[in-house]
Specification:
It is globular, with a radius of gyration of 20 Å. The chain has 15 helices and eleven strands. It is of the alpha/beta class and 433 residues long. The longest helix is centred in the first third of the chain and has 19 residues, at 17-35.
């Protein structure tokens, strides 16, 4: 089967679709070697692949940012059957508290760093000549004892994983670094073995060390139960220390948790989009469900494509695929409500010395019991993000932000997500926000 870039048009890469556009062809080419002898009876499956991947790439992919990913902060207690943690240090202005999770000896700080941009040239304009800047980010996070990085096999087609391995090895402090990566749940990957094989490839790119957290990147239209078996197999083989999912809804989280529990394994995390401009997981009960099950939530896109940083306004819209979403926020019915949200954020920032709007947004996700995983491509961004850990919102701050954010009309609709909404074989609802 021959695919061209135009097979995935129109491409509207709000966040991850660019990654998917870049990688889908390569993943398909690899899988085609295995499936090249598919009979005509399987033609429908191949057609569904094209249809499904086209939706992922051509859809409003802002819901597929994983970047992840990011765990509930230390203040959130685990349920009796969940993982347990112990505080390793006391929070200071320069050192965040660390927690170890007994489900796999994984160190989870109260904030992580997403590395989608580390290696992705298509969407983020990655330039290998600037790898030294990425290493500065890595070293700074390690210095702050917040060296938890979220990546994926799709990010730069493995380049992100390789960079993290390189930086970790150079640090000489590998035991202080935690790395989470993700399995791409493409339609041609239908067996538990596909998860294990992809995991082995990630382990190799990451320098041969067991993966601290291995996640299913997004739901598929089928074979989801096989993926959970694959996660369990990878865990039992010692390839990974803990397992998680990403972009799973209420019913899917419960099902995955139950399936893994039957294998004696705790579902550690669910990485989902959450921000002051994307509250759906709060409103539909997904956060409550994760907390009930002891599944820690990693909040990706906590700064909502930079819209919550104060950098953009009507006269200064972002370029590229983010521009359409920005117009929705800065024009029409959203304009007044969004401006009010920014004003509330600024008032809170002004009460805290040297605080930024970004830090207000990040601390709101922390206040909701999640671990945000913002991206950082340079030292300035890393310092600004991680300095959010130097202060916390008050209850009044959280209430004010909630009231202001609820009033902002959604800039994206979960119903238009490119993710598979339901497993067509089992009828299980996979994605709801």
């Amino acid at each position: 089967m021959v695919l061209s870039v135009t097979s995935f048009a129109p491409i509207i890469p709000l966040q991850r679709s660019a990654i998917l556009a870049q990688s889908l062809l390569q993943v398909w080419m690899a899988d085609e070697k295995e499936h090249k002898n598919l009979s005509s009876a399987n033609k429908s499956r191949r057609e569904v692949f094209v249809e499904s991947t086209s939706k992922i790439v051509g859809g409003v992919a802002s819901l597929s940012i994983l970047e992840q990913t990011g765990f509930n902060q230390a203040a959130i207690a685990f349920s009796p059957n969940a993982l347990s943690y112990s505080s390793l240090s006391t929070s200071t202005a320069n050192t965040a508290p660390l927690q170890t999770f007994s489900g796999g000896n994984v160190v989870m700080p109260p904030m992580g760093l997403g590395t989608w941009a580390w290696g992705d040239s298509l969407f983020w304009g990655y330039d290998p000549r600037l790898d030294n800047e990425l290493k500065e980010v890595f070293d700074y996070a390690l210095e702050r004892k917040i060296a938890f990085f979220d990546t994926a096999e799709l990010y730069g087609i493995g380049r992100s994983e390789k960079l993290l391995a390189e930086f970790r090895d150079a640090s000489g402090r590998s035991n202080e670094v935690s790395i989470a990566t993700k399995f791409a749940a493409f339609p041609t990957r239908t067996k538990a073995k596909d998860v294990v094989d992809a995991c082995k490839a990630s382990v190799k790119r990451l320098g041969g060390k067991p993966i601290d957290l291995y996640q299913v990147h997004f739901p598929n239209a089928w074979s989801n139960a096989e993926y959970w078996d694959g996660l369990a197999d990878a865990y039992d083989m010692g390839l990974v220390k803990s397992v998680g999912v990403s972009n799973y809804g209420v019913d899917a989280v419960r099902a995955a948790h139950s399936a893994l529990k039957a294998r004696g394994i705790q579902l550690a995390t669910n990485q989902i989009q959450l921000s002051l401009l994307y509250r759906f997981p709060i409103d539909n009960g997904l956060l409550r469900t994760c907390d009930e099950l002891g599944v820690k939530v990693l909040a990706y896109s906590p700064l909502c494509l930079g819209f919550l940083t104060g950098k953009y306004n009507k006269g200064n819209l972002p370029s590229g695929p983010r521009k359409a979403a920005a117009k929705k926020l800065f024009e029409g019915e959203s304009d007044v409500a969004f401006s009010n949200l920014i004003s509330v954020m600024q008032t809170i920032a002004d009460k805290n010395k040297d605080a930024s709007l970004s830090q207000v947004a990040l601390n709101w996700t922390r206040a909701k019991g999640t671990i945000p995983i913002p991206g950082a491509r340079n030292l300035r961004q890393a310092k600004q993000n991680l300095d959010a850990l130097n202060w916390n919102l008050t209850e009044d701050d959280v209430r004010a932000l909630d009231q202001a954010s609820i009033a902002v009309p959604p800039y994206i609709d979960p119903a238009k997500s490119p993710f598979a909404k339901k497993d067509i074989r089992t009828g299980l609802v996979m994605f709801d926000s």
